[in-house]
Design brief:
Strand content: 25-35%
Distance between the termini: 16 Å
Order of helices and strands: HEEHEEEEEHHEEEEEHEHEEEHE
Strand order of the largest sheet: 6-7-12-10-11
Mean pLDDT: 94
Number of strands: 17
Oligomer: single chain
Number of helices: 7
Shape: globular
Structural class: alpha+beta
Largest sheet: 5 strands, antiparallel
């Protein structure tokens, strides 16, 4: 497809607010470090430029995908024949009196660490989660018995159907385990606001944060590229334990391996392809079903 008109629109209206990158290697923009090239990657720096991009691509029937830090996605080896809109330049956030307001592309870990160090409670669980604010709200990211739904006050989004910018309060998100109403919708997250509550014992909150960070370093394979935990927890089961019991810890398909350190992770040993990862996911799911009679669900989003 010819993207000259789109690039011309950007240069005429958002020359200093949207970065243009043709033939973008998606390995660079995902934590898995896997994937082929996208026709075009665009990096809006603020809400207005993102909304204008979304309006343009939808009105002109241009295939597109929106990602943040790329921490829970897997791009095809063949790449992406379309436009990838990457929100990581939308990284502003502001601490107010009782609200923390963040752009969709702002880094979750950095914000959570700053909140904890500023004496606020409720954020320690998120210290170390590698995603962006938008991705975290989208999937109700969580760890260590905490999740985004615990602290969210509202989010704002662009509605692709109506062309309007809207606000959604926390109780309207239909939050569940690794789920929100944004999934499968025509709504693109622009920003989110979180409650700020001063901790009664700030030092204990800092200690909890440090404990979580240490646990991640000790138990997770942070030395290799990955998309984090690959599967959702099945009710009543620890998925990593099921994979370990199935004898799959360390099992490889090509350059993709079930981590020897934490069986809930698939890691890229250096030359893994998306095909390797997908085959390994299928092997794991089949093995667990044959042993336990349950279907575990993958939480990594494949984009092709």
């Amino acid at each position: 497809m010819d993207y000259n008109a789109l690039c011309g629109f950007i240069r005429d209206n958002f020359a200093d607010r949207i970065e243009i990158m043709p033939d973008a290697d998606m390995k660079r923009f995902t934590t898995f470090r896997i994937g082929g090239k996208a026709d075009l990657a665009l990096f809006p720096s603020d809400r207005d430029s993102l909304v204008s991009l979304l309006r343009y691509v939808t009105e002109n029937n241009i295939k597109y995908a929106v990602i943040g830090n790329g921490s829970n996605v897997l791009f095809s080896d063949e790449g992406y024949r379309g436009v990838v809109i990457i929100t990581t330049q939308m990284k502003n956030y502001c601490f107010g009196e009782d609200l923390l307001v963040c752009d969709a592309g702002a880094p979750l870990t950095q914000i959570a660490v700053n909140a904890v160090r500023s004496g606020y409670e409720g954020y320690a669980f998120a210290c170390g989660i590698p995603g962006s604010i938008g991705g975290a709200v989208f999937m109700n990211a969580g760890a260590y018995e905490g999740q985004i739904s615990d602290i969210l006050v509202y989010s704002e989004y662009y509605d692709l159907k109506t062309g309007e910018i809207c606000r959604m309060n926390a109780d309207e998100h239909e939050f569940d385990y690794r789920h929100s109403s944004y999934m499968g919708s025509d709504k693109i997250i622009l920003s989110a606001a979180f409650k700020l509550e001063k901790a009664k014992d700030p030092e204990s909150v800092i200690a909890l944060m440090n404990e979580h960070i240490k646990a991640r370093r000790d138990k997770q394979p942070l030395e290799y590229p990955s998309a984090g935990s690959v599967f959702k927890r099945y009710p009543g089961y620890f998925t990593a334990k099921l994979i370990d019991q199935a004898g799959l810890k360390g099992f490889c398909v090509g350059g993709a391996q079930v981590s020897e350190k934490h069986a809930g992770f698939i890691v890229n040993k250096g030359d893994a392809t998306a095909k390797d990862v997908c085959e390994l996911i299928d092997i794991i799911k089949k093995a667990i079903f044959e042993r336990e009679g349950i279907n575990i669900e993958c939480e990594v989003r494949k984009i092709d």
